[in-house]
């Protein structure tokens, strides 16, 4: 189980932020070289002493061994981390001091084997940070983050180790290696060179010190946001429920009861609660309160305010990349991404931005007309559409213009049926079969978590396990994300995949189905796309299971398209009470309204993406985050009725770690690929289930992971580069030649 030496320090300082952004969206495969494979340690490493700490122990039981989530104790975490670091340093020293000349096998491959013990510990760390956080864990997280950063600096700045890696990188041997091995060498070398290995003396020390400081700040930022999410709950009385769907009311009652407020209705400070409340509540004053509470996370002027932390983070990142010779942080970050540089990323976003804000203007006009009519009928003073009105009146426009009621659609979106639909799609495209494991046979960290075995439908070959943790609860971070506890490799014995999806659906009343919105259903499919990306891996080496950030969202975004296929609709989108499939008339309305509210969705996303990139291309010396946000958005002509999807003080994607920093643009970069690839299926004889296109999809875009350059992989699938025109068509925006 390989621990990545260049990015784990960032990983442990965050709460695995990332793909929780679809629409709120992590994959915890945070950066390009995540290596979670269960392998043996380097043969030359120091012997491992008898261990009693469960977190360090090899996984036992069925399915090649599984994490002992049911027995893990938080009190073991800190000593396990310390022991795991010592063991990995011993392994690394053995590689660095090998008297034999450096070769691919004795240097690069041995590094791939190193770190299995510490990686097991990080699996448990990830659960405590993302799924089961507590004040006790956060204290450990705060204490250990700088120690872990210092530990990884010892490896990335190990001069003897880097000298061996560099020698292999520049050797004639590389020319004789397979393409995937050559890419492994290149990624390993760049992982060192781009993270301070080439620095000397004071510059190298300062680089390591900055990483330690950032680890502390990232951790504090994420804990501040989590505090505001947990601490602000709005309790409603029965007379304040006007407009809210019955399913949401029941879920809110259950949420209140779980917090000791039986008879009340809890609106929690998470997107999964905020979004439906703002969509349906007739209580405008309450909508404003919920909106402000949600969008002011980390920005309340108290001890949990993140603005000062943001300034410090930006300054430290800027100083660090200047040590490496870069003009700004974004240049360093994008150098190994598909975009290559900030200009290319800006070019794409600026091509879409004018159409997005123009569409917002049209959407607001439609909403204002309905609001004016409503106020006239109620004989009340007219209002002007504000941000907390957008979702509410957009829903009324949807009903008026498309005769489409979101709550009516919701009755056909049962969580369990959606899961079955995802299995169906995986069976048709990937030939996977999902079979529930017997309760108790695989340890889980919470009773809500269920596990399925994944096998090949034809051969019966075991592929791995899929864990699902679907429901919101206290201590669990908001949003949705995917992660892997173990990834496929074959270089040191074949390893199966342990993949996990995590969501924050509101648990329904006992015995009743969980109904979700269309956006949430898309998110469910999206995150499952990340799981399929992991499960379909055919790579040999752990490093190659990583990914390029502005590419890794592509596969998951693409999977959303199967939700609206006829096969899924007819079999799985059935009414919660009658069991009848969604009527063709309703399906037609959904498809007709496919680009509805696209101005809002695109604008709120692009605003966050552009602020991210601008923050990381601006000299941060005297930056005031709130002021920068306000003035920059004004300069972009940001519509006043829309706010950034993630305001800067709670923008965890970029400030709880570095997985998406200067890279939030990656979603729309990947969306260009998504739209273009979707047209390949639409044009095929078999449509979205065309066997030939599906095989190319799996062979070239899923199974190779990061063993092939993403641009080359996409060309192998499509026969050409992706075209932005497909994205514009998808969103109903004008296509300019």
UniProtKB/TrEMBL annotation:
GO biological process, one term: proteolysis
Biased amino acid composition, Polar residues: 25-36
Catalytically driven reaction(s): Hydrolysis of oligopeptides, with broad specificity. Gly or Ala commonly occur as P1 or P1' residues, but more distant residues are also important, as is shown by the fact that Z-Gly-Pro-Gly-|-Gly-Pro-Ala is cleaved, but not Z-(Gly)(5)
Pfam families recorded: Peptidase_M3 (PF01432), TOP_N (PF19310)
Residues passing through the membrane, by range: none
InterPro entries per record: M3A_DCP (IPR034005), MetalloPept_cat_dom_sf (IPR024079), Neurolysin/TOP_dom2 (IPR024077), Neurolysin/TOP_N (IPR024080), OpdA_N (IPR045666), Pept_M3A_M3B (IPR045090), Pept_M3A_M3B_dom (IPR001567)
Superkingdom of the organism of origin: Bacteria
Alphabetized UniProt keyword annotations: Hydrolase, Metal-binding, Metalloprotease, Protease, Zinc
Gene Ontology CC entries for this record: cytosol
SUPFAM superfamilies for the chain: Metalloproteases ('zincins'), catalytic domain (SSF55486)
Cofactor note: Binds 1 zinc ion.
All copies of domain Oligopeptidase A N-terminal, residue ranges: 84-203
Protein name according to UniProt: oligopeptidase A
């Amino acid at each position: 189980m390989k621990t990545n030496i260049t990015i784990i320090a960032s990983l442990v300082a965050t709460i695995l932020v990332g793909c929780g952004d679809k629409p709120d969206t992590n994959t915890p495969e945070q950066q390009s070289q995540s290596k979670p494979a269960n392998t043996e340690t380097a043969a030359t490493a120091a012997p491992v002493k008898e261990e009693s700490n469960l977190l360090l122990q090899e996984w036992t039981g069925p399915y090649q061994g599984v994490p002992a989530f049911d027995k893990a104790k938080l009190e073991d975490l800190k000593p396990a981390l310390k022991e795991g670091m010592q063991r990995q340093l011993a392994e690394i020293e053995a590689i660095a001091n090998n008297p034999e000349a450096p070769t691919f096998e004795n240097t690069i491959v041995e590094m791939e084997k190193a770190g299995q013990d510490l990686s097991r510990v990080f699996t448990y760390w990830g659960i405590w940070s993302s799924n089961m956080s507590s004040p006790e864990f956060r204290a450990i997280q705060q204490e250990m983050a700088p120690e872990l950063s210092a530990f990884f600096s010892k490896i990335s700045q190990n001069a003897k180790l880097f000298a061996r890696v560099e020698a292999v990188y520049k050797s004639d041997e590389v020319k004789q290696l397979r393409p995937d091995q050559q890419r492994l060498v290149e990624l390993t070398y760049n992982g060192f060179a781009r993270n301070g290995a080439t620095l000397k003396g004071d510059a190298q020390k300062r680089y390591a010190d900055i990483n330690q400081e950032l680890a502390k700040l990232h951790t504090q930022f994420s804990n501040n946001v989590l505090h505001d999410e947990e601490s602000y709950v709005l309790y409603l009385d029965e007379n304040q429920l006007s407009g809210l769907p019955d399913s949401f009311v029941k879920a809110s009652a259950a949420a209140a009861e779980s917090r000791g407020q039986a008879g009340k209705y809890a609106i929690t400070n998470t997107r999964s609660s905020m979004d439906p409340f703002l969509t349906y509540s007739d209580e405008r004053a309450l909508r404003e309160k919920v909106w402000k509470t949600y969008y002011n996370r980390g920005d309340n002027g108290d001890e949990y305010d993140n603005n000062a932390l943001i300034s410090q983070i930006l300054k430290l990142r800027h100083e660090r990349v200047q040590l490496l010779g870069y003009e700004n942080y974004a240049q360093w970050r994008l150098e190994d991404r598909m975009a290559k540089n900030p200009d290319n990323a800006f070019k794409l976003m600026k091509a879409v931005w004018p159409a997005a804000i123009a569409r917002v203007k049209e959407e607001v006009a439609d909403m204002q007309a309905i609001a004016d009519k409503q106020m006239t009928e109620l004989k009340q003073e007219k209002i002007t559409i504000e941000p907390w009105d957008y979702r509410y009146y957009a829903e009324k426009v949807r009903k008026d213009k498309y005769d489409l009621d979101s709550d009516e659609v919701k009755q056909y979106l049962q969580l369990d049926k959606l899961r079955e639909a995802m299995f169906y799609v995986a069976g048709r495209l990937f030939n996977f079969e999902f079979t529930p494991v017997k309760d108790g046979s695989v340890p889980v960290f919470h009773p809500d978590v269920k596990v399925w075995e994944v096998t090949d439908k034809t051969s019966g070959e075991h592929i791995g396990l899929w864990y699902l943790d679907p429901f919101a609860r206290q201590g669990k971070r908001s949003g949705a994300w995917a992660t892997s506890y173990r990834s496929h490799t074959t270089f040191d014995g074949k390893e199966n995949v342990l993949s996990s999806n995590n969501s924050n659906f509101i648990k329904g009343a006992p015995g009743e189905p969980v109904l979700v919105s269309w956006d949430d259903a898309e998110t469910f499919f999206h995150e499952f796309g990340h799981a399929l990306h992991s499960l379909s891996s055919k790579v040999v080496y752990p490093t190659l299971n990583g990914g390029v950030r502005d590419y890794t969202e592509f596969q998951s975004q693409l999977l959303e398209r199967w939700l609206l296929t006829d096969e899924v609709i007819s079999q799985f989108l059935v009414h919660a009470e009658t069991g009848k499939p969604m009527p063709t008339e309703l399906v037609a309305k959904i498809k007709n309204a496919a680009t509805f509210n696209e101005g809002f969705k695109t604008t709120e996303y692009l605003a966050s993406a552009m602020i991210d990139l601008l923050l990381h291309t601006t000299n941060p010396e005297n930056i005031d985050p709130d002021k920068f946000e306000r003035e920059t958005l004004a300069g972009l002509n940001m519509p006043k009725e829309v706010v950034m999807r993630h305001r800067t003080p709670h923008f965890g994607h970029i400030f709880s770690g570095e997985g998406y920093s200067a890279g939030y643009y990656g979603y729309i970069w990947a969306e260009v690929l998504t739209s273009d690839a979707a047209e390949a299926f639409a044009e095929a004889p078999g449509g979205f289930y065309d066997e030939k296109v599906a095989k190319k999809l799996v062979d070239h875009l899923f199974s190779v992971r990061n063993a092939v350059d993403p641009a080359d992989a996409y060309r192998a699938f499509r026969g050409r580069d992706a075209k932005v025109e497909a994205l514009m068509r998808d969103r109903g925006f004008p296509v300019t030649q």
